[in-house]
Amino acid sequence: EVQLVESGGGLVQPGGSLRLSCAASGFTFDDYAMSWVRQAPTKERELVASITDINDAITNYADSVKGRFTISRDNAKNTVYLQMNTLKPEDTAVYYCNVYKYWGQGTQVSVSS
Known about the structure:
Blueprint: E1 3-7, E2 10-12, E3 18-25, E4 34-39, E5 46-51, E6 59-61, E7 69-74, E8 79-84, E9 93-99, E10 102-103, E11 107-111
Parallel strand pairs: 2-11
Antiparallel strand pairs: 1-3, 3-8, 4-5, 4-9, 5-6, 7-8, 9-10, 9-11
């Protein structure tokens, strides 16, 4: 059974940082690209960042987060991370970890003063 468990969300002031983690199990982690997707209230889901499998580890980012967010993976720990710096109020959303057709439960990120 595929499981994706996100953690690390919370409330932070504008300009602050958070690091999200997604612990994966139930599949061969090394072989799959991983993504972070977010959904803000009344908005559609947005692909924030993705990283390809262990062979290339190529990263891609939404224009809205380029230069501020960094996705990485630790294949020894079956975990993917999203380091979020210089957070803005518009980054407020539920952040989901995604692999293939599977989703985590999401973690809330709120950016507010």
